[in-house]
UniProtKB/TrEMBL annotation:
Catalyzes the last two sequential reactions in the de novo biosynthetic pathway for UDP-N-acetylglucosamine (UDP-GlcNAc). The C-terminal domain catalyzes the transfer of acetyl group from acetyl coenzyme A to glucosamine-1-phosphate (GlcN-1-P) to produce N-acetylglucosamine-1-phosphate (GlcNAc-1-P), which is converted into UDP-GlcNAc by the transfer of uridine 5-monophosphate (from uridine 5-triphosphate), a reaction catalyzed by the N-terminal domain. Residues 233-253 are annotated as: Linker. Binds 1 Mg(2+) ion per subunit. InterPro entries: Bifunctional_GlmU (IPR005882), GlmU-like (IPR050065), GlmU_C_LbH (IPR038009), GMPPB_C (IPR056729), MobA-like_NTP_Trfase (IPR025877), Nucleotide-diphossugar_trans (IPR029044), Trimer_LpxA-like_sf (IPR011004). Its cofactor is Mg(2+). It catalyses: alpha-D-glucosamine 1-phosphate + acetyl-CoA = N-acetyl-alpha-D-glucosamine 1-phosphate + CoA + H(+); N-acetyl-alpha-D-glucosamine 1-phosphate + UTP + H(+) = UDP-N-acetyl-alpha-D-glucosamine + diphosphate. One of its GO terms (cellular component) is cytoplasm. The keyword Thylakoid does not apply. The lineage of its organism: Bacteria, Bacillati, Actinomycetota, Actinomycetes, Candidatus Nanopelagicales. This is Bifunctional protein GlmU. Acetyl-CoA binds at A382, N388, Y389, S407, A425, R442. NCBIfam families: glmU, PRK14352.1. Residues 1-232 are annotated as: Pyrophosphorylase.
Length: 475
């Protein structure tokens, strides 16, 4: 049976986060909190998804339009509780069939558990079903009150619970499946006669039961899935739990993770089998890593593509393409627009930006390559700078195939170094170098004899120089 409507409650103030960013937008593992919930919901293929927004409305709506443009939003101007938020959502919907209601701050929730809830809800013909879990520390959660026949009687919020009820370990996840028509009829009967003066969606359960509805509590095995995020401590806890879940899935799929506790892979990243992730590695965003690659230690990849058999060691790369068999690092910085063709090498203390390095070519160390294309089989000597910026505009450098750029060269763009050409070490190249030629752009050296003794008397340099002057006189 298909799911008609999902309502995600994301209007809370999130005051305990102490942040100008709305709570549901705080990121972990490559998605916002509400983004993780949306991802879980997507597995159910609902026909309609409505998000109730409130605090930070503009920011939340802008984020939703980017990550989930298919959803609609409803604004809860005055926060009046989960029941009030659901009322607002129903006012804007002509919901039929089954409606799923859940919170926007439960990033560990999976589509599998949501499907389990819906399956039991439909199979039993229930009016309402609540997803529950047994929490070893239920503090802060609504308690599940069951009848003698094990059916769900009601949900009691902790602030309204007595001492006996607070000892109950089974808690409300905040995830509900309702008969949409029955929910619409009961939601208007809610009252705010509680300690918070709010309308609780949980009270709908008792209303529906008193009206003869069948109510189910669907207990899942792993309480971790229902954990909500209310402050920075819980944000960090959820991030670590997601890290562990992702790493375990990767290892079972054939990825070697040497130190899972120090390895962070976003839920949005893709890592193939037979990849090795060394300690201190972070694979972020939409990064994809092909089979046989070795990443790390201490490496960060953001929105990158890494080819089969490539090695990236102690480096950082963002929006870069690293080809099959390429070698990067250590201490390399690849900025957006960098493209390394197969079997190329970018070594220690090299920065590249908006540049292509040809197959088999090398930039081994201590260089900057920006706004350039380098052909195949070329070597860029140590301390070479591609001078791409004139203070107003960026300019492009072209280096051909099998070129040898001498150490400490300055290639002042726009300039082209032809196939098979060389540049002499220490040259400032301001004009094109034809294929097969050597470009020499340096002045003839001259030595001014005795300069230190005359200009820097009394210094250690002068003292050292004077010893040689005395030795020469003796000779």
């Amino acid at each position: 049976m298909s799911l008609e409507t999902v309502v995600i409650l994301a209007a809370g103030e999130g005051t305990r986060m102490k942040s100008s960013t709305p709570k549901v937008l705080h990121p972990i593992s490559g998605r916002s909190l509400v983004g993780h919930v949306l991802h879980a919901v997507d597995a159910l293929a609902p026909k309609h998804v409505c998000v109730v927004v409130g605090a930070g409305r503009e920011q939340v709506e802008a984020h939703l339009s980017e990550v989930a443009p298919h959803v609609t939003t409803v604004f809860q101007e005055k926060r009046g509780g989960t029941g009030h938020a659901t009322q607002l959502a129903l006012d804007g919907l002509k919901a039929t069939g089954t409606i799923l209601v859940l919170a926007g701050d439960t990033p560990m929730l999976t589509g599998t558990s949501l499907a389990q809830l819906l399956e039991q809800h439909h199979a039993g013909g229930f009016t309402a079903s609540v997803l529950t879990a047994e929490h070893p520390d239920p503090t802060g959660y609504g308690r599940i009150i069951r009848g003698d026949d094990d059916s769900l009687l009601r949900i009691v919020e902790e602030r309204d619970a007595d001492e006996v009820q607070r000892d109950i370990l089974e808690v409300n996840s905040g995830v509900y499946a309702f008969d949409a028509i029955k929910l619409a009829g009961a939601i208007g009967k809610l009252k705010n006669d509680n300690s918070q003066g709010e309308l609780y969606l949980t009270d709908v359960i008792e209303i529906l039961r008193n009206e003869g509805g069948k109510i189910a509590a669907v207990l899942i095995d792993d309480f971790i899935e229902i954990l909500g995020v209310n402050d920075r401590v819980q944000l960090a806890e959820s991030a670590a739990l997601l890290r562990d879940r992702i790493n375990e899935d990767l290892m079972r799929a054939g990825v070697t993770i040497v130190d899972p506790l120090s390895t962070w892979v976003d839920a949005t990243a893709t890592v193939a089998n037979d990849v090795v992730l060394m300690p201190g590695t972070a694979i972020s965003g939409t990064t994809t890593v092909a089979t046989g690659a070795v990443i790390g230690p201490r490496t960060t990849l953001v929105d990158c593509t890494v080819g089969a058999g490539a090695r990236v060691i102690e480096s950082r790369a963002s929006e870069a393409i690293i080809g099959d068999g390429a070698n990067v690092g250590p201490y390399t910085f690849l900025r957006p627009g960098t493209k390394l063709l197969p079997n190329s090498k970018v070594g220690a203390y090299v920065e590249m930006k908006n540049a292509t390095l040809g197959e088999g070519s090398k930039v081994p160390h201590l260089s900057y390559v920006g706004d350039a294309v380098i052909g195949e089989g070329s070597n860029i000597g140590a301390a070479t700078i591609f001078v791409n910026y004139d203070g107003v505009e960026k300019h492009y450098t072209v280096v051909g195939d099998h070129v040898r750029i001498g150490s400490d060269s300055m290639l002042v763009a726009p300039v082209t170094i032809g196939d098979g050409a060389y540049t002499a070490a220490g040259s400032v190249i301001t004009e094109d170098v034809p294929p097969g030629a050597i470009g020499v752009g340096r002045a003839k050296q001259r030595n001014v004899i005795g300069w230190v003794l005359r200009k820097r008397p009394g210094t250690k340099s002068a003292e050292a120089a004077s010893r040689h002057s005395t030795d020469e006189q003796k000779g």
